[in-house]
Amino acid sequence: MLLRKGKKRRPREAEAVEKRPMFRDPRNFGLVVQTYQNQLFRYVYNMVHDHHLAEDLTQEVFAKVYRSLTSYNPKYPFSAWLLRIAHNHGIDYLRQKKLQTVSYDSVTNEETLHEASPEFHDTSARTAEDTTQRAIIQEAIYSLPVDYRSVIVLRYLGGTKLEEIAYILGIPMGTVKSRINRARQILQRLLAESKPGTRAP
Question: Is 90 exceeded by the pLDDT of residue 121?
Fold first, then answer.
């Protein structure tokens, strides 16, 4: 059975950090890194699709976070603020290196998207067909232009609220919704074309 869009809860450790009045103190930065490093790495990796590069960029993101801790505004979750910094840094890198993926003229339903999430399958029950399908979906997501890939990763693989996505990406809510719809159209076409015997019109 396919899952619906993610409703992942933030780890208890993350909630604890965000509730501490002194978490913005640079002296507590080790706790910030320990709590959020996996989340930031996954997001950056989904932008650049390169493990070693994602590690380097994540370290650079934390350096920026360290210099900016005292400027955090608690209007949004601390994790959203971190992702905003990570996204902007990733975009800057992609623009400098011209690693933007190609654009397509034309996602599947919300349930199918979650097959790309590492947490989707029980390893013991995973079949070769499941694994192949998940890999196809992941590659389709990675092939999206970064503007579309970001909203898909945040919304469907991260379970991020629309208003938080708008904050992270620095775009209006309407743009978030239109990018999600457009990305789903592109992915639906790509996945249809990936099926044996299917040809693009």
Answer: no
